[in-house]
Amino acid sequence: MMVVYQDNCLKSILNELKPAVTDKQLYYLLENITGNPEHLKAQFAGTSKGTITVELVTAKVPVIVSESDIDDFPVNGKIAMFCAAYETAHSVKYKPSAADAGKMKALTASAQELEVLINLYMKSKEWYLQPKSIANFIKKYNEVRALAVAKPAVKTYPLPYDPEYFAKLDMMQQRAYWAYLRENGYVFQQNAGRPDKWVKAEFI
Fold it and tell me: Is the model's pTM score more than 0.85?
């Protein structure tokens, strides 16, 4: 789940949690998302210790040496850059509209920054960056910038051990869950005549 803030105000929430959360779980998450990014980590650390990890990532703001860095990069150059990346990704030419030209003209970005972000946008499989168009690229510009500096997501599993969740996983996912449990201080405990379980080492 990505929570996007702009100017210290909540802007949008992108949800790609798998497996899909229940209505109750989603309500819990949304109820605890704060309007201030500085409070977000503390909020979940206090209410969901050990089950939800929050990492704050700040999008880099490009440093402009002079206004000419942007002024010398005309709108037709921006559109040509987008069209070239689109054709490379889809093997078909992109046909920009008059509205696309207006959107690109309003975009403030250097040629170097724009090239990086357009290429990232074209390669991304994120649902919120579909379809691939100038209009959607401009609309999701801040999200693309955030994605450019985001660290790869680390897979987490329910703690303590959840046998019902475990039963829904395939063999490779089950092995990954076992490794995650060990990394978090759990040991496998066999119980004669009763279901086996994973127990926190400190409670044994």
Answer: no
